[in-house]
Design goal:
With 170 residues, the protein is mainly alpha-helical. It is built from five helices and two strands, in the order ααββααα. A two-stranded antiparallel ribbon has the order 1-2. 22% of the residues are buried.
């Protein structure tokens, strides 16, 4: 399970970023219209005013607020859920994870090894982080939608690998 700790979220801004991120994952990701998404962002910005921040940019000072528990040490038993600041580094880290996945002889699906040759970019990395967050939750599950060939299966496989879970495919 993901765990944010006071060790990694000691400042008010850090806690608000985490709160913002969780609201974006729980609510924003489920909204279907631009108007609804904009309304949610406006509501969240209003909340920041209660803590003395007039502009959302005072707290959300990065292009994308992204948290994960897989960047620092994937093998650790307790993985800190921390903000991923270096987005360019995240892309290269995901490339490294993909290479590890391809070299891992224990990650076999339906009796055969399925190699992946994905081109990682920031949106794909963000989707992997989202899927990993979801499946690490107790009884976590996701319906991943998209057109054929958009990477739903591949991104789900990488996310499953990052979380250390076994993948079963019918």
């Amino acid at each position: 399970m993901c765990s944010a700790s006071p060790k990694h979220t000691s400042e008010l801004k850090d806690m608000l970023k985490l709160w913002y991120h969780e609201n974006m994952r729980v609510f924003h990701d489920r909204l279907t219209t631009v108007e609804d998404r904009d309304y949610l962002k406006k509501m969240l910005a209003e909340f920041f005013k209660e803590f003395g921040f007039e502009n959302i940019e005072e707290v959300i000072d990065v292009e994308r607020v992204l948290f994960g528990d897989f960047v620092q040490n994937r093998e650790a038993e307790i993985k800190p859920y921390v903000q991923i600041d270096d987005l360019a580094g995240l892309v290269s880290k995901m490339d490294q994870f993909q290479e590890e996945y391809n070299n891992d002889i224990n990650f076999i699906i339906a009796g055969q090894k399925k190699q992946m040759k994905l081109v990682m970019f920031l949106d794909a990395c963000e989707h992997i982080a989202r899927i990993a967050r979801i499946i690490r939750q107790p009884q976590g599950n996701a319906l991943v939608l998209g057109v054929g060939g958009s990477g739903r299966q591949s991104l789900s496989r990488i996310a499953t690998y990052l979380t250390g879970y076994k993948l079963f495919q019918i």
